[in-house]
Each structure stands twice: as structure tokens, then as C-alpha cells.
Amino acid sequence: MLQAEKRRGGKTTVAESAEVSVLPIRVAEVAVKEVPAASPPAAPGINVRGAFERFDRHGISGWITIVGASEMKPLLDIVLDGRTIAQCRAENPRDDVKESGFGDGRCEFRFDFPPEISAGDAARIRVRFTETDLYLGMPEAPPAARKAASEATYSSHFGGLWIDRSDWVVRLAERHRLGLVSDLLAERIFRFVRDGYLVIEKAVPEVVVDRIVADLEAFWANPPPTMRMETHEPDGQLRVLPPDISYRGGRTKLLDAFAYSAAARAAISAPPVVEFLHTIFDDKPQAFQSLTFWHGSQQPMHKDTAYVRVDGNPLALAATWLALEDIEQGTGELQYFVGSHRAPDYRFGGVSKWMNTADADYGAEHDKFLASLHEDARQYNHTKTSFLGRKGDLLIWHADLAHGGSPVTRPERTRLSLVTHFCPAANSPFFYRQQKLREMDTPSCKFTSQHSDIAATPAVA
Ligand SMILES: O=C(O)CCC(=O)C(=O)O
After folding, report:
1. pTM, whole model, 2 decimals?
2. Ligand 1: does its nearest atom lie under 6 Å from the Cβ of 200?
3. Does the beta carbon of 334 sit less than 6 angstroms from any atom of ligand 1?
4. Is 339 inside a domain boundary?
5. pLDDT-derived band of residue 219, with 50, 70 and 90 as boundaries?
6. Rounded distance, CA 116 to CA 269, Å?
7. Which residue, 150, 178, 203, sits at the end of a domain?
8. Among 301, 324, 331, 334, which is best to mutate for testing ligand 1, by the most ligand atoms less than 8 A from CB?
């Protein structure tokens, strides 16, 4: 409608009003070229009144009405970096506006930012009339958003940990100089930041690994009632079910063994692992999901940030892969693209670090995402390598390292492994939004599970 008006009348008029604030409109001939709010466009056209009343880290709201045509309820595009990420109509009732003499008063607009909009994103949100180049003059971005935007020194648009900042070497050197980080740890962090992963040989004593394997055998044979497995068998659909030994292979994994096995908890919180994670998180690590594989998963190359959600900061995440036996070639060994954690963000829907499985075309976008990792590898020369760890060796990967399971060419061989996802203790796994079961807080590591009330599940070992 506005487009039609604009074509007929040429440009837009903004008039002064004593009673209500004027909503300045900026006319952008191209998205980046803006006429200052104070200079009203020359030709007569549409008289718009309104106000931006809220623009903060969590959303925007205000009201807008077209003088003399208040029955027209403008549709607004919420725009981020030139892309429309949502629309809202200015049509919610506002008695105060009605009393001021502006039509029926149904003119409020409101848009709450979805959780995947980072603080930096919020600072760059713009609003325009749908199907036009008419942008509403935005109030100054909220302080938190401005700060986040001005500190955008992370390699990912979504921020990250201190090791992801452009000044990480300076910060590492400072910690090293102050004696907070040993030579060995400094070297480990350096390699992790450069490559996106770190191998710690003999991170977990063999005796602990043997106990874990015995526990896993027992869980498969006689599962604790609340334990769950995750499987894609037999039809490729993801299901979370009570463990059934006939599924013990392929991509099926036993979930959160740490809730039931003291040995698994000991391995997950092995001192060199905790020391490393505590340093990169600047916080106690929180193990919030573990997966035990019997065979190679053959998962395609992927990045955990698409699926494993941590509220607030999608990159406040790291994972460990523990070899529960000597890993041999052809058994589906873990593989990864070295340095891929520094490739540009893939944004689902053009916006989000997280994949939204509720999107109608999410399957197609997932394929696109997976393909993009191989394109990045070609473009940025990421070499593919794999982890042939010996029993007790452990690999830590960065939240954004592209990794997966290599093809299994020796299906008769097992590939026993324990994967754990961690975030800082102060962060919340996304599943807390649905439910929060009791956690276990130890001096070195916090354990929390989406499926198991850890406090109610005495460990078998
Ligand atoms: O162990 C594997 O084969 C892959 C594990 C993995 O990619 C994951 O848990 O994110």
C-alpha cells in the first residue's frame, strides 16, 4: 500500500506535532544511503506519526499511524544486515494514541528478538515499511548492544570465549606471565586456538577406562530405568528411547552415562581436561551431555554449534572425545578439518548459529550447511585428518570445528568412545528452558543431564 502511495505521490512527508512525537522516516534509495531524519523529503505523500518506545537487547516496540488513513495498518520488515528476518504489523490497540486523536488507536508494533539474535545483531536491527525503501529512524541502539557491537573482535559474529578474540595471544601471554598458565597449558591453548582441537595423550588412566567399558556393558545388558539411547535406526528418524542392546551399533549412542557411572565422571573430569577447559571457559566446566558409541558413527562433517545449544553464547561450548580402546583405521575414526573453527559463520535462515528443526525447509538447509563445510575446507585449505588415539587418549574440539566419523570399512571392529559436551558452569544448556533436573556439582566439574536426575541415580561404580 505504501509502495502504491509512494508511486502516486512521490516521496514521504513528515510533519511536526505538538501532542505526539514524530516518527522520523529515513528514505534509503539504496539500503546504505540514508537521508537524515531531520530533512523531510520534498514531495508530499504520506503523513506518518508514531514513536519508538522500546529498543533494547530483547526487542523493539512502538506505534505508527498514517494520518488520514489510520485504517491502513502498516506491515513492517525487521531487517538485519539487509535481510528481512521477520515482519510485524502495527495494529495492536493503544488507547492513549486513540485519545490523542489518531484514528482507532490500533497502531502498536512489537517484535521480540528470538534468542538467536545476539547483542551485536540487536544493535544492527533496522525497521522498514514492507515493500519499500522507507526505513524508520531508529533510536540509538541500547548500551549493551552498542558495547557488544564495538567489541566485535571475535572471529565469529556470535562472539565466543576469550580464546576466540583477536587479542587472544596477548591475553594468553599475560596469563602466562602472571603464572596463571603453565608452559604446557599455554602451549596446549596455542595449539587449540590455531588448529581447533587438542590431543592429550593418556589423559585418562587405563584402569578408569576399563571400568567405564565394564559399566557400559552392564548398561546395555541391564539398563538403569531412566537411562536413554539416541538412535536413527531403522528409518533415519531421530528417536530417544530406553536402551535396547539390539541397537548397539552404527549411529546409536547411549546418553549421559556420567549420570550412572562414577568412572565416566572421573574420566570426564580428568585433571588435564578440567585444567584446560577451566582456563578457556574462565569458569568451572559443566558436562551437560555425553554420548557413548560402540561403533563408528559415520556422521557427516558437521559443527556442534548448529545442534548443541548453550543459552546466550552459542560458542561457549567445547567437546571431548575419549578413546575407550586403541582406535584403528577403518573403524570409523573421528575426523576433522584442521582450522575449520575459524571459517566464517554459517547462518541458518541467514540469522542463526543454531539450526531450527521447526523450519519447513530445514532438511534442505541442513544439506546446504553440511556442503558449506566442504566448500570452506576447499576455500581455506583445511586439511582433513583423523584421530587414531590409544586407549585413554583424548581429543578436545572447539565448538566450531568441523568434524565427523570416517567411513567404516571394518564393520566387525568396535570403536568404543565417549564424547562429552561442556559449557561453562555459569551458562545454561538450552534444555533448561524445558526442564532442569537436579545436577551434581563437584569441586572440579558440574554434571547436568537432559534425561537423568543425577542426584537420584546412584552410580554403579
Ligand atoms: O564419534 C564420532 O564418530 C562423531 C561424534 C560427533 O561428531 C559428535 O558427537 O558431535
Report:
1. 0.70
2. no
3. yes
4. yes
5. very high
6. 30
7. 150
8. 334
Domain boundary among 150, 181, 205: 150
Kindly give the distance from the C-alpha atom of residue 176 to the centroid of ligand 1, in angstroms, as a whole number: 32
Q: Is any atom of ligand 1 closer than 6 Å to the C-beta of 351?
A: no
- Residues 273, 294 share a domain: yes
Q: Are residues 298 and 185 in the same domain?
A: yes
Q: What is the CATH number of the domain that holds 413?
A: 2.60.120.620
Q: Does one domain contain both 117 and 181? A: no
Whether 121 and 166 map to the same domain: the answer is: no
* Cell 567405564 found at: 212
pLDDT digit string, tens, across residues 178-193: 788 999 999 999 999 9
How many domains does the chain contain in total? 2
Mean pLDDT across the stretch 404-417? 96
270's torsion region: left (phi>0), alpha (psi -120 to 50) or beta? beta
Of the candidates 295, 344, 287, the residue with the CA atom closest to the CA atom of residue 319: 287
Nearest to 2 by CA among 131, 91, 89, 107: 131
Helices (H), 303-437: 362-380
Does the C-beta of 419 come closer than 6 Å to ligand 1? yes
pLDDT band at 44 (very low <50, low <70, confident <90, very high): very low
Q: Are residues 110 and 207 in the same domain?
A: no
> Same domain, yes or no, for 270 and 400?
yes
Q: What is the pLDDT of residues 352-396, one digit of tens each?
A: 899 987 776 778 899 999 999 999 999 999 999 999 999 999 999
Asked if residue 196 has its Cβ within 6 Å of ligand 1, the reply is: no
Closest atom, ligand 1, to C-alpha of 403: 7
120 or 165, higher pLDDT: 165
Which atom of ligand 1 lies at the shortest distance from residue 293's CA? 1
> Does 332 reside within a domain?
yes
Residue 49 beta carbon below 6 angstroms from any ligand 1 atom: no
CB 460 within 8 A of CB 215: yes
Ligand 1 pocket: which of 232, 252, 291, 299 to mutate (most atoms <8 Å of CB)?
Answer: 299
Residue whose C-alpha cell is 551431555 = 289
Q: Can you give the residue range of the structural domain that contains 109?
A: 2-150
How far is it, in rounded angstroms, from Cα 25 to Cα 35? 9
The mean predicted confidence, pLDDT, of the chain is: 84
When pLDDT is averaged across residues 46-63 and rounded to a whole number, the result is 82
- State whether residue 150 is helix, strand or coil: helix
Most informative mutation of 291, 308, 414, 421 for ligand 1 (most atoms within 8 A of CB):
291
356 and 390 belong to one structural domain: yes
Q: Are residues 55 and 12 in the same domain?
A: yes
In a domain, 171, yes or no: yes
Q: Where are the beta strands (DSSP E) in 211-284?
A: 229-231, 239-241, 253-255
